[in-house]
Amino acid sequence: MAWDEWEQLKAAAAERHGTHMQLNQLPADRGASEGDLISNKPAWTRIGTDVGSLREDISKATAKLKDGQTGLGSDSGCLTAAAQKDVHESWATYVERLSGRCGKLSGLLVKAGTDQVRTDESVEAEVAKLNVAYADTPAVGGQGQGR
């Protein structure tokens, strides 16, 4: 397929779709402002670490939740104590699962940043291979050749 034909096909496809998404890099001189999407390894790592740090806060909340249950004694004969025990068990399970979810999500976010960098690096390496494999040959003829 000739390059001109390819360009015509792309133009025709663009005309068929009035609204489309365009993913381009911002100009280098433009700084990030409120609402701009930043997608790089440090950003992914930072958010992954932040989500992971929620586990520490959840752990503290779990300890306070457990401390609040001490001294209730047996729930036999007291409907309020029985209800409180059920609610405590429900919340303890919820908080434990939430902590696990934060841990898994943290790892996934950090991995996403690492994978993104690896993808960018692998694409860059493949393009570099193309540049080597299909490098322009030095021009011949018409040069002074030391004359």
- For the report, how would you describe the main beta sheet? none
How much is the average pLDDT?
A: 77
Rg over C-alpha atoms, rounded to the nearest angstrom: 30 Å
Question: What would you call the shape?
Answer: elongated
**Could you list the spans in which at least 5 consecutive residues all have pLDDT below 50?**
none
Please count the helical segments.
3
User: Can you write the helix and strand succession as a string?
Assistant: HHH
Structural class: mainly alpha
Approximate strand percentage: under 5%
User: End-to-end distance, in Å?
Assistant: 44 Å
> Oligomeric form of this entry?
single chain
Number of strands: 0
Helical coverage, percent range: 55-70%
Summarize the structure.
The chain is mostly helical and 147 residues long. 65% of the residues lie in helices and 0% in strands.
Question: Characteristics of this structure?
Answer:
147 residues, mainly alpha, 3 helices, elongated
Provide an overview of this structure.
- By secondary structure, this protein is an all-alpha fold.
- The chain is 65% helix and 0% strand.
- It is built from three helices and no strands.
- It has helices at 3-16, 41-67, 79-133.
Topology, please?
Elements: H1 3-16, H2 41-67, H3 79-133
Helix pairs in contact: 2-3
